[in-house]
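Help needed: design a sequence for this.
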């Protein structure tokens, strides 16, 4: 028998003739609606303030021509929706002709995109830097700016816990969840003063600025390293046979450990190489038997991003080997069997100190007196580097082990003396990019938390209005007090979401587009 807490009493007047499933009448929905009512805040449906739109025609999916980032138009699917920020690493690209063909799913800056199939409720605002974009059939788009809404605030509302409750209430489907255009229109928007909307929306805009700065810094690093990596030419990546001298063999006798393309590339290169074992002070997998000591953060496969460690690292027991705690500039690779497709694809750059790697994470600590860690990362992300890491996979469960990764050869470029200082400075640029990336993630969390605090009464609308007016007058004091008061959780001893407000201000005050 179910516990009483799971039961929801629904008045007859609340029942809809179209929905009788329990998800439509969840306790979370009624609790959230009651909290909004107690707060005195108002809502109005999306359909009453603007006209959402979806895909033009499913038949046109057969005519999509894919492209690359250099010549294509960004194409947004659920993977690119970071709630509330756009996740550019998840973008696909279509040809300009496809973009013109899919005219009914085109986007302009400021439009809000929401995933409405499978994973419901992911969202993002198309930023100003992307002049145009397109989107797939599993998203719904809308833009309530003409009705006085701040679209970045609206994205924070949708990404917040209350916004997700309302959106997921509309989801239905026997096999896969869907939200359709007709019921998406009745999803409510939180209606607050323009200054309060702008205050919350500006947190998302600041996050977007910092995320873009991180992207530009990483691109600058990549451009520097690209000067010193000779691209492969005329190499047959499909070739599967080669002759090996006995001295080249290790205990590995499986053929894929000796890829022919790599041999061709190094022969073509003709320059010096050095093994990772000689270039690194540490190549280890995470600890599998932690000691029962105090809890610390742990880096897992789920929070390894394309560039940096993402998300909140979960609390685990302290491992026995303290030397395996992560340090800035460590390179992190996935080695997990159930994530075979990710082994070697991405090399995450650590900008944090203290977390411990899980067993699914391999740590490569480069001796940065010999070579920049960011160069090793850049090389391992090239087609040849990726092939080398993939060649280390072994076993039925497809793992990559440090003993094999240590054998990988890295080309040592001939960097002119005049360029060496800038070359080694790329590591600090990656740390700067990481700081921007982390601050962007925190600011996005601040925006959604502010929405939640408005509803639960921990902050009021007048506070946000006053803080916004003060900011516009050059006074950060009210903003500082709000940021210092936001907690990571509801626990009595919870830490502030922003550990150092002054450091955040300093980061925001730095000009965009700088190299370090």
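Sure. Designed sequence:
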């Amino acid at each position: 028998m179910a516990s009483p807490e799971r039961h929801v009493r629904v008045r007859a007047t609340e029942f809809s003739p179209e929905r009788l499933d329990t998800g439509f009448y969840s306790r979370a929905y009624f609790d959230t609606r009651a909290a909004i009512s107690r707060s005195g805040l108002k809502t109005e449906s999306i359909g009453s303030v603007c006209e959402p739109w979806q895909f033009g025609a499913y038949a046109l999916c057969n005519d999509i021509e894919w492209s690359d980032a250099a010549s294509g138009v960004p194409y947004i699917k659920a993977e690119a929706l970071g709630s509330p920020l756009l996740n550019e690493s998840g973008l696909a690209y279509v040809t300009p002709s496809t973009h013109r063909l899919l005219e009914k799913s085109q986007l302009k800056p400021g439009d809000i995109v929401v995933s409405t199939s499978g994973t419901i409720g992911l969202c993002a605002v198309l930023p100003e830097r992307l002049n145009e974009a397109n989107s797939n059939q599993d998203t719904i788009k809308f833009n309530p700016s003409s009705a006085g809404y701040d679209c970045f605030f609206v994205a924070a509302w949708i990404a917040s816990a209350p916004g997700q409750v309302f959106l997921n209430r509309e989801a239905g489907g026997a096999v896969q969840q869907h939200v359709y255009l007709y019921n998406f229109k009745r999803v409510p928007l939180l209606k607050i003063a323009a200054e309060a909307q702008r205050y919350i929306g500006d947190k998302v805009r600041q996050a977007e600025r910092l995320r873009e700065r991180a992207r530009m810094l990483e691109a600058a690093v990549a451009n520097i390293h690209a000067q010193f990596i000779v691209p492969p030419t005329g190499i047959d990546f499909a070739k599967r046979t080669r002759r090996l001298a006995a001295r080249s063999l290790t205990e590995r006798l499986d053929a894929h450990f000796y890829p022919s393309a790599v041999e061709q590339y190094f022969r073509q290169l003709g320059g010096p190489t050095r093994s990772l074992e000689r270039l690194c002070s540490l190549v280890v997998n995470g600890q599998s038997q932690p000691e029962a000591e105090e809890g610390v953060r742990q880096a897992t496969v789920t929070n390894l991003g394309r560039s940096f460690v993402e998300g909140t690292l979960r609390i685990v027991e302290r491992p026995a080997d303290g030397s395996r705690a992560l340090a800035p500039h460590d390179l992190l690779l996935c080695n997990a069997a159930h994530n075979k497709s990710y082994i070697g694809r991405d090399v995450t750059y650590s900008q944090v100190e203290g977390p411990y790697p899980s067993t699914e994470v391999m740590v490569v600590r480069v001796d940065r007196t010999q070579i920049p860690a960011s160069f090793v990362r850049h090389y391992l992300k090239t087609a040849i580097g990726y092939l080398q890491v993939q060649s280390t996979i072994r076993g039925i469960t497809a793992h990559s082990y440090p003993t094999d990764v240590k054998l990988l050869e890295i080309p040592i470029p001939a960097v002119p003396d005049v360029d060496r200082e800038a070359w080694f400075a790329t590591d600090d640029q990656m740390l700067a990019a990481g700081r921007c990336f982390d601050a962007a993630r925190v600011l996005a969390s601040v925006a959604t938390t502010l929405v939640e605090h408005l509803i639960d009464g921990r902050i009021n609308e007048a506070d946000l209005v006053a803080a916004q007016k003060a900011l516009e007058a050059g006074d950060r004091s009210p903003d500082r007090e709000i940021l210092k008061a936001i907690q990571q959780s509801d626990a009595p001893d919870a830490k502030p979401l922003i550990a150092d407000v002054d450091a955040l201000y300093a980061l925001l005050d730095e000009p965009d587009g700088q190299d370090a």
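The two ends are 61 Å apart (CA to CA).
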